[in-house]
Write a structure and sequence with these properties.
By secondary structure, the chain is α/β, with parallel strands linked by helices. Helix content is 38%, strand content 15%. The strands form four sheets. A six-stranded parallel beta sheet has the order 10-9-8-14-15-16, with helices on both faces. Strand 15, helix 13 and strand 16 form a beta-alpha-beta unit. Helix 8 packs parallel to helix 10. The longest helix is centred in the N-terminal third of the chain and has 15 residues. The chain is elongated, with a radius of gyration of 23 Å. The N and C termini lie close together (7 Å).
Length: 401
Amino acid sequence: MAKKNIASVDVSGKRVLTRVDFNVPVEDGAITDERRIREALPTIRSIIDRGGKAVLMSHMGRPEGSGYEAEFSLEVAATRLSQLLGRPVLFPSRDCVDAPAAAAVAAMKPSEVLLLENLRFHKDEKKGNPSFAARLAAHGDVYVNDAFGTCHRPDASMVAVPVAMKGKPRVVGFLVEKELKFLSDALRSPAKPFVVVLGGAKVSDKIGAIENLLPKASAILVGGAMAYTFLRAMGKHVGKSKVEEDRIADAKRTIDLAARLKADLHLPIDHVCSTQFAEDSGDIEVFDEEIKDGYLGLDIGPKTQTRYALILRRAKTIVWNGPMGVFEWRPFLQGTQQVAKAIADATTAGATSIVGGGDSAAAVEKFGFAARMSHVSTGGGASLEMLEGKKFESVEFLDEA
């Protein structure tokens, strides 16, 4: 069932407790990627334009959970949000549930915006503690989930807070609504050919998604370090490439499942390799099929790039999660860049393309293709769990449309 969204709630004069995802990267006190903040703006504006009081809560980074840590303060996000909205953003306290925070929320006027300090300064956030959630819930008359990047987590602000606010409106924001629609529509009834691209470091992260998608996808294209566990499972020589030894049996099972289903599972046929895991040192060579001793695979090779691009350009629906190699380093960016370009070209030709957060989102931004994709997700882990066919407890509790 579709969920009610924030537009369907009368927010005038009400405190609208909104879980956003402001878990943004910060270097030397400056935000280096503000996309998650920008993506929350439509929901925040909907609240304040209609006279609501926007009480925002988020986590950032991985603090210890035993109180304030300057390095993980959300104050930098409050400052940037204020600039983007063109109005002040209240940032009352070093704690999200202390007396000054509660007093600041109580004193809010209609159309004001307040950001609470980092939820993870309390261990109880990650533990999903109900008494901590009740203290957060006291800040709101309406609950909004607009934090897709955290939808797969059972944190207090995601699950226990909406449970504590039973009887009050509990809805999705526009970002979560958009994310769920793109991903669920793509998986429920994708226009064919439906091509899934999976990369990244670990087979363990993606095995569930591959097995869930094998019966549905027209083709699954595998790249990144995870490919070497699959190739080892097939008896190929992969040099000193990264292999998850404890996942070889899983990889073999997946290859056998693909064969039984007559599914089109593609693995790299050539590799850009180096003698060192480094950008500027080591001997770099391209190997067909098997990798020589002493070398490790760091990108898909030119033949694989061409093969994958041809499949992608014919696709009508594309889901991509995980890079093809170490795209942050110049010698090993070509595979990821060529896949991104092929997906962008397919989208221009009418395909629907969904890029699943995390490193894939960073890659399309880096290579300048983000604007040409149908949808770039704000949640790597959350989009991956949707690809695995999992449901989100955090969304189940919200009001049905």
